[in-house]
Amino acid sequence: MTANHPEAVIRHSITAADQAAITAMRLATAPMKGKINGPAARLPFADIMRHTPAAPGVTYEEARVGGVAGWWCRPEASAPTDSVVLFLHGGGYVLGSAEAHRNFVSQLVARVGVDFFVPDYRLAPEHPFPAAIEDVLAAYRGLGALGKRRIALAGDSAGGGLALVTAALATDEAAAVRPCAALVFSPWTDLTLASASFQTRAEADPIFTKDALGSLARHYLQGYDGHDARVSPVYGKLAGLPPVQVHVGDAEVLLDDSVRYVALAQAAGVPAELHEWEGLPHVFASNLDGFQAASKALDLGGAFLAAQLA
């Protein structure tokens, strides 16, 4: 293992059906590639996320936790427990909402069988760094104040990066409940855009370009240093973190954000697991109607969280 290559990667081959689906997706998204790059994309992005089918047997409730508004996503038939998952939605720190992501979250709720809280952390450019991480930490502490003693973190894309940042900060915070796990899908772990896959996967990625993600990063950072560990968890202290499971498609420019993070985590002694999915795009697990691999990734992630929360 080197600092850039994990000790072990669990690679999943693409099915013929998913190969056909990604080919069709590339044709459909070609006119919009690189256009998800600022606040103007909020409505279409929310519409995309709402297309994830809702899992049966999950209820939703608006609430505030730690003073932060959001949504509870709860299994209907669940006994009271001190376990909970804090899920952080993606959207490049500029897009996304708890309401738009709740169908995607419901798929994990149904598999894990515990409550999830999805906070509506403040978005850039109206609220640049450190607003997002301040809100997420407030929500995390709020869950502890509600008596939750086993708290796992989860998230996708920028929310995946936020989950990993929060895991590190909460692990080091003496007054907080230590997180017991982190599950992330296509996490954005380096806002300096230093990963080699911005070049090697530039053509393969059907959604994002380096310029588009650079625009989102500028909205969030507004001149702040992207090397700060509260922004880019790949530059943070990783020793002592709880078990981490990462899912990433190998047809996305953020591929190496996952590869680099897991390699560094493993080198620091963290039980970190990387699942790399051949030919699949960014946060493919939210596209249950499009990809057979989506339900498989959610099954693996759900089983991981259930085991860590048990």
Account of the 3D structure:
- This protein is α/β, with parallel strands linked by helices and 310 residues long.
- The chain has one domain (9-309): 3-Layer(aba) Sandwich (Rossmann fold), CATH 3.40.50.1820.
- It is 37% helix and 18% strand.
- The chain contains 9 helices and 9 strands.
- It has helices spanning 16-29, 42-50, 98-112, 131-145, 158-172, 197-200, 210-221, 255-267, 292-309, and strands spanning 9-12, 58-65, 68-75, 83-88, 115-119, 150-156, 179-185, 244-249, 272-277.
- A 9-stranded mixed sheet has the order 1-9-8-7-6-4-5-3-2, sandwiched between helices.
Overall pLDDT metric: 96
Q: How many individual domains?
A: 1
CATH topology name, in short, is Rossmann fold
Instruction: Give me the CATH architecture, please.
Output: 3-Layer(aba) Sandwich
Radius of gyration: 18 Å
CATH class: Alpha Beta
* Largest sheet composition: 9 strands, mixed
Uncertain spans: none
Structural class assignment: alpha/beta
Q: How many helices?
A: 9
Strand content: 15-25%
State the helicity in percent bands: 25-40%
CATH superfamily: Alpha/Beta hydrolase fold, catalytic domain
Descriptive tags:
310 residues; alpha/beta; Rossmann fold; nine-stranded mixed sheet; 9 strands; 18% strand; globular
Task: Give a quick rundown of the structure.
By secondary structure, this protein is α/β, with parallel strands linked by helices.
What topology does this entry show?
Layout: E1 9-12, H1 16-29, H2 42-50, E2 58-65, E3 68-75, E4 83-88, H3 98-112, E5 115-119, H4 131-145, E6 150-156, H5 158-172, E7 179-185, H6 197-200, H7 210-221, E8 244-249, H8 255-267, E9 272-277, H9 292-309
Parallel strand pairs: 1-9, 4-5, 4-6, 6-7, 7-8, 8-9
Antiparallel strand pairs: 2-3, 3-5
Helix pairs in contact: 2-3, 3-9, 4-5
